[in-house]
Write a structure and sequence with these properties.
With about 300 residues, the protein is α/β, with parallel strands linked by helices. The chain has 13 helices and eleven strands. Helix 1 packs parallel to helix 4.
């Protein structure tokens, strides 16, 4: 049995729910390379050896379409219908439905509901999940503890530790939630992440209500730094640069909701794409990963638009 899952809390809890629902004692679970939506050689080799495969919380229909083994594909993202007859696709979005997380779809499919279901939803949509009665019903720990637990589980992918992401499934299966809140490997990671975020905020330069932040870290915290500057500290926007992220540079630009009608994020994204940059985003955010030598050009385009 092979379980392939996303690297975040929703993917990890979904994998644990499948293992529990099927009563699995022996199984292999793998995550794609963190931040890369693809099956690498390691996953492809595991697929070749597996008898049955579950793919959870990974919006990779093209990859799943090519699997030649019996596969259950459980997800909640908008995606095309799989034509491969060996794949059973379980996704409410195919019928214009909705689920807050893959963990909810897994629970509905197997009829197994527990706190992992709720944690998956909290991981995907944050505090909004608490507006869902089923989430509140399932949680036996308080809101602060539940959000902390999501932070602890996510710490594995934030520090880019793929091996510990995969180990996290069996950690969930063998510890209760109270134990997990004190689980030392995750706590240490979370502390290191928090220090990195605070150190980055410490380099903040303020210009006309906008925070400009530059730092270097192997941790994938750039979006968290920007959210803290805008959501917690109340700046109009944040331009954040990680100048050395595993040999590349990351740039993240977030604006407050009040400025979404005044700053055309779509136009900035289009301009950067025209220049050949790997960039994406939506109404209030822009994310870009590029060669270190390209940082100044990206910043100039953002700054020119702000001016």
């Amino acid at each position: 049995m092979l379980i392939i899952h996303h690297w975040d809390t929703d993917g990890i809890t979904s994998a644990a729910l499948v293992a529990k629902a099927l009563g699995l004692e022996e199984f292999e679970n793998l995550s794609p390379p963190i931040g890369e939506f693809r099956f690498d050689e390691r996953i492809r080799n595991a697929i070749e050896k597996a008898d049955k495969i579950y793919v959870l919380d990974l919006n990779l229909p093209n990859e799943v379409e090519g699997i030649s083994k019996e596969t259950i594909f459980i997800d909640h993202h908008i995606q095309p219908k799989i034509r491969n007859p060996k794949v059973k696709q379980i996704n409410p979005a195919l019928n214009v439905g909705y689920a807050p997380s893959a963990s909810f779809v897994v629970s509905q499919y197997f009829g197994i509901w527990n706190e992992w279901t709720a944690l998956g939803a909290l991981g995907d949509i944050g505090k909004k999940a608490l507006e869902i009665p089923k989430v509140r019903e399932l949680l036996t720990i308080n809101t602060e503890e539940a959000l902390r637990l999501v932070q602890l589980i996510d710490s594995n992918y934030v520090v880019m530790d793929r091996e510990d992401v995969e180990k996290a499934v069996k950690v969930l299966l063998t510890h209760n939630l109270r134990e997990l809140l004190e689980y030392e490997p995750w706590v240490k990671k979370a502390e290191a992440i928090e220090k990195t975020i605070n150190d980055a905020i410490g380099s903040l330069e303020l210009r006309n209500g906008f925070a400009f932040i530059t730092f270097e870290s192997s941790f994938n915290v750039i979006s968290k730094v920007a959210r803290k500057a805008v959501w917690e500290l109340g700046y109009n926007g944040a331009v954040v640069v990680n100048r050395d992220f595993h040999g590349k540079a990351q740039i993240y630009f977030r604006i407050s909701p009040e400025l979404a009608d005044k700053i055309d994020m779509g136009k900035i994204i289009s301009l950067l794409k025209e220049k050949g940059f790997n960039v994406g985003g939506k109404r209030e955010v822009l994310g870009c990963i590029c060669e270190k030598s390209g940082v100044d050009e990206v910043l100039e385009i953002i700054n020119a638009h702000l001016r």
